[in-house]
Specification:
This protein is an alpha+beta fold. 52% of the residues lie in helices and 14% in strands.
């Protein structure tokens, strides 16, 4: 199948999937199918593909088989660059962190996959490369004790809580690495760290594009505060870029160097979030979230 015909076939399956809450006909009829949207490793654009999946040991798994082709499929290369992916499963859709399994864990999970879908064993036999088994980590359930989000201040605090939790989780994983361990971090820590960086980029980009300009218009007295926040965004962005560059080769990363960089990020980010909350929350507390419909002009 040529690249163009494959893309056309995938598009037809995707449209049928979305129109029928995950049910499709043809070669996928009756199978376990999901849609995976990744961010292009080079283009930065979203790419959606239909994939078979297996649920085993309470995990949602996809295999980068490419039907036994000699090279990894593009969607797998994309998620190595951008671990946060979008999953559509039946009528449900959610963001997930894509983490390739390694070592004995990969072997155990691949055995479970083949037990449920023997065709993957045939694909593995057809190629010399090891087929990656990718765990799609579902988001944690919402904190039942978290206050409801009713204002933009609440939304900002919600985003800050997520960033703090993700960074804390990554630092705990980094600290758990055994002393004297050989260089190399493993995909789990790498993917979680990149997912945090991706979330941080998204948050600051949104603030720079919408929140900070809106505050500048409604609260001109905060001009100095907003200039400082913009400078801090750029400073934290430089640390984030250094982290991403450090993680480019998972086998070569020195764990102690990563721990040092994560400590530096934690100190800078926590100081920034605390200052932002102290300065902006009073101004944002009066802004409803999500925003309501626009108010028509008087006499309209």
């Amino acid at each position: 199948m040529t690249s163009s015909s494959s893309s056309s076939f995938n598009l037809t399956v995707i449209e049928e999937f979305r129109a029928n809450a995950g049910r499709v006909g043809g070669p996928f009829e009756g199978g376990d199918l999901l849609l995976l949207t990744t961010t292009g490793a080079r283009s930065g654009r979203p790419h959606t593909v239909p994939l078979g999946y297996v649920e085993a040991r309470g995990l949602l798994l996809v295999v980068a088989s490419a039907a036994g082709a000699p090279e990894h499929p593009q969607w797998y290369r994309n998620l190595l660059a951008h671990p946060v992916v979008r999953v559509e499963l039946g009528a449900d859709a959610f963001d997930a962190i894509a983490v390739p399994a390694e070592g004995e864990e990969r072997e155990s999970l691949f055995e479970a996959v083949v037990h449920r879908a023997p065709g993957y064993g045939d694909y593995q036999a057809a190629t010399e490369r090891q087929l990656p088994v990718v765990v799609l980590e579902r988001p944690q359930p919402a904190d039942a004790d978290a206050p409801p989000v009713r204002t933009l201040a609440d939304r900002l605090l919600e985003a800050h809580t997520w960033l703090r939790a993700q960074l804390r989780h990554v630092r705990e994983e980094a600290q758990a690495l055994q002393p004297g361990r050989a260089a190399g971090l493993g995909f789990q820590l790498r993917q979680h760290c990149l997912a945090f960086c991706q979330g941080l980029t998204h948050h600051h980009t949104g603030e720079d594009a919408a929140i900070l300009p809106a505050v500048a218009r409604s609260h001109p007295q905060l001009r100095g505060v907003l200039e400082r926040l913009g400078e801090e965004h750029r400073a934290i962005g430089r640390i984030r870029e250094e982290l991403v560059a450090l993680l480019a080769d998972v086998e070569a990363v020195e764990p102690e160097r990563l721990r040092t960089e994560l400590d530096r990020m934690s100190a800078e980010l926590e100081a920034h979030l605390a200052y932002e909350e102290a300065q902006l929350l009073p101004a944002l507390a009066a802004v409803p979230f999500p925003p309501g419909p626009p108010v028509p002009p008087a006499g309209g």
